[in-house]
Each structure stands twice: as C-alpha cells, then as structure tokens.
Amino acid sequence: MSMKDGTKWYLIVSGDGLILSKGAQWSRDRRLLTPAFHFEVLKPYVTVYNEAADILLRKLETCSKSGESFETFSVLSLCTLDIILRCACSYQDDIQTKGASHPYVAAIKDLMRIIFHRAVSPQLHPDFIFYLTKEGQDFKKLCAYVHQLADNIIAKRRQTLEDSKESGEEDLTKSRRRHLDFLDILLHAQDEDGNTLSDVEIRNQVNTFMFAGHDTTASTTSWVLYSLATHPEHQDRVYQEVQDILGGRDPPHLEWEDLPKLNYLTLCIKEAMRLHCPVPIIGRQISAPIEVEGKVLPEGTITDVNIWNIHHNPAVWGTNIWSLTHVGSCQKT
To answer: What are this entry's molecular-function GO terms (predicted)?
Structure first.
C-alpha cells in the first residue's frame, strides 16, 4: 500500500518526507532518522518543553482571569509549534507571544486552510484550475515562503558546522552551547553507501515534522483537557499525581526521570486518544492486488482504515464508550 493521490497537496508543502515517502525511499529515510529519537537525544528536550509550557501557562492564566470562555486549540497549537521549531532546528522567535502576527504562523495557518478547502471542493482538484484562482496563487506564495525559511535555517546551520570544524570544535553541543536537535541529526546522517541528505531532503523532513506534528499534538492535548474537565474525578487524581511528583519544586518543572512516574496521567491521555483519535482515518492506495476475506482488491483501489470506528467498537469497549471508565485498565488503553 502507499499514500493515496490526495496527499499530493500536502506533498507540495511538506515535501517527500517520512510520512509521504514510499518504498525504498521510506526505508532509507526511516533508517537515517532513527538516531533522532534516541533517548539521549530526546532527554534535553524536556527543558524546551518546560520553557514553552511556562509561556503557555502564563497565557492561560491571563485568559482565565478575564472570566470569559476562550478557544484552547489555537493557544495549544502555538505552543506545540513553538516546541517543534525549537527541538527540530533550535528556531526561537516568540512564536507563542506573537501568535498569528508571526509570518510563519500565519503562513502555516493559511496553507492548512487552503488545503482543507481544496480537499472538499472537487472543482479545485485539477491543478490547472486551482492555480488560476486567487487561492492557488496564494498557495504558491505561501509554499515559497515556508520553503525559503527552512532553506535559510539549513544554510545557516551548515555554515555554523563548517565554522566549528575549522575552529576544531567537533562537539556540536559544546560548540553552540545547546542541545543536539533534529537538524543536527539530519545534517550528519549517512546511508550505508556513505551518502548524505541533500538540502531539499533535509527541508522535506523538517517541514514534515512541522506540519504533521504540531497540529495533531495540539488536537490531542485539547481533547485530553476536555476529557479531564468533563470528568473532574480523574482530573483531581491527575493533579494530585503531578503535585506528588513535583514535591514543591521551584520552578515546578518535570524532569526526564519523572515521566515514567506519571502513570495515571498516561492512562488518561491514552483513553482520551482512544475516544478522540487525532487521526480518525488513514487513506491508502493499493499498489498491488490483495485478497481480503475472499475478495480481491485490484491495484489502484483507494482504501481507508477507520481508526475511530475501531476505537469505538462496542464488542471491545462495551456500550459505555463515551466515558473514561476504562482509564484504570492498562490492557484496554
């Protein structure tokens, strides 16, 4: 199976990254990217999470003092984008504070809006029609801006690495006094033949993580907050668990070693993701004939995996599926 043709619109924006690549290309990408998810690489990111969370909490506190309701997804989306930009390429530019006024944030928001609108507008599916419209022209300009920003970051990092080598500073973290990020891993990645990634390939991987990561993470976090708010008994237990682990720390930051101790919070997150999965359906296109329950699906057939339906199957989860009562069962979550 491979990604269905509809994903080509995302491909224009993010490029042929890990999510949209296929076959041998995907296998190579997966091998090269594996080191980026080693625990020793991920550990320093906790500091980034805490810094971004502090900004988020200050914003939420301001919103709560107004006494009015507010939409949490956009606030969380800025936070997750801020974190991914910092962890992926050490890019820090007050994303959460500037919000939609930041050109990169505005570009991503507009790109996603255009892609979704095109997806539900059959008349805009053909490229020759779409690019004659104002949306099509805007789409081109926004893609060019996002790609240029990534190219500039990559070029600057390559120059920094060259300068470090010339000065004899081989240790990346010491030479720039920061954590090893996703971009560092990509710039040093080599396949079995010793080939490195081109700037375009690196840009594709970075953009893939930006687009695929921040929106789904913000959606998941929003639903977790909703689930806890509508089930205060579980929310109270999660709060107490976190407070017990923090033990009065100042500042109240969680460390890497604390994460495995968050057992009840983990169960609540998993149950919320089951009830409100961030990716409810996965589309695929059959690349070769395949037999399913005695029926042959020919090559080119578009298929969907209905994750939402699987997660709400009463034969597995019972009839009480809109509740966090499963939270105490590790097997079911």
So the answer is: heme binding; iron ion binding; monooxygenase activity; oxidoreductase activity, acting on paired donors, with incorporation or reduction of molecular oxygen
